[in-house]
Design brief:
alpha+beta, six-stranded mixed β-sheet, 5 helices, 21% strand
Length: 201
């Protein structure tokens, strides 16, 4: 039976009841827009212009572009985005968070229904509070990485009563990247200071 609670990957609107089960968009217009966006590099230039890229294994172990072990604290094991993207080592890319700037990532676990595209209410509230900033779907397909700027020197893992968690990182970690932009989130990094303060209060 066709689900009637799926949402469009581009505009976030409800899918037509007659939409095929594998359809990702609600209309031809949204399909074309999603395709064009996918062809462009969705990653913010604040990330791609920094030489803090690594490769990652299928189990999310960081690797150098040559396939050796990489470290989230050793810049000698990092590369430019261009070199990391050109490498075929491992299963994908990763970006290293460092204390040389204020780039942070909020990692929301198990908050996205991969079939419908709907966010859990608690995650939808954080997503809304974050505003216009780059957000991508995590490698698991059911989590989100919300990227932005804030002063986070010590990572935090905030466990929720339902067993899910929000992780906040700003340095000494690497984040597995997918390039799968969530909805129509922009390729910019917003100030997440207020969101971080609210989550850690």
């Amino acid at each position: 039976m066709m689900r009637d609670d799926r949402v469009c990957d581009w505009c976030g609107g409800d899918m037509p009841l007659a939409a095929r089960s594998h359809a990702r968009t609600c209309s031809t217009r949204c399909r074309v827009a999603l395709h064009r966006a996918a062809k462009r590099n969705a990653l913010p230039t604040e990330l791609t212009t920094r030489d803090r890229w690594v490769r990652r294994s299928a189990t999310k172990v960081p690797l150098t572009v040559a396939g050796m072990a990489a470290s989230s604290t050793d810049p000698r094991t990092w590369s430019s985005y261009k070199d990391a993207a050109a490498s075929t080592v491992g299963a994908g890319l990763g970006f290293v968070l460092s204390d040389v700037d204020d780039i942070v990532c909020l990692d929301l676990d198990h908050c996205l229904n991969p079939l419908t595209g709907r966010l859990a209410p608690w995650a939808a509230a954080i997503f809304r509070d974050a505003g216009a900033t780059y957000v991508e779907v995590s490698p698991s397909g059911d989590g989100l990485h919300i990227w932005g700027r804030a002063d986070v020197r010590h990572g935090r893992r905030i466990r929720r009563p339902d067993g899910t968690a929000v992780e906040i990182y700003g340095t000494g970690r690497y984040i597995a990247m997918t390039g799968r932009r969530h909805g129509s989130s922009p390729s910019i990094l917003a100030d997440l200071s207020a969101v971080v303060t609210k989550l850690t209060a």
